[in-house]
Amino acid sequence: MKAVGLDEETIQKGSPVTPMIVTLLVEMAVALIVSFILIHLDLDIYIGGLLIAAAAILSAIKNYVFEMKPFKLILINESYKLVTIMIMTASVAFFG
After folding, report:
1. Where do the domains of the chain lie?
2. Which of 9, 26, 63, 82 is most buried per CB count within 10 Å?
3. At what angle do helices 71-95 and 45-67 cross, to 10 degrees?
4. Highest mean pLDDT: which of 31-40, 53-62, 81-90?
5. DSSP string covering 48-94, please?
């Protein structure tokens, strides 16, 4: 919590339901966009997934640079994003 700049009191005030619903909706939208792009690209499915992951991670890193967040926080959040996009790419390759 220290790396993000939050304390226990701030977390206790907010409702945990709203961020979870927003996160679910955003992740579902990202999954649909990634699957659409991967299906309609003329590249190998894994190369397309790698390009999408690289673009997403690079765009997020620029936000961390401006926010001056610690490198450890960048690694945690962006490795999660990389694994998520890898799973989406594998599912498109398997089911698509």
Report:
1. 15-95
2. 82
3. 160
4. 81-90
5. HHHHHHHHHHHHHHHHHHHHT--HHHHHHHHHHHHHHHHHHHHHHHH
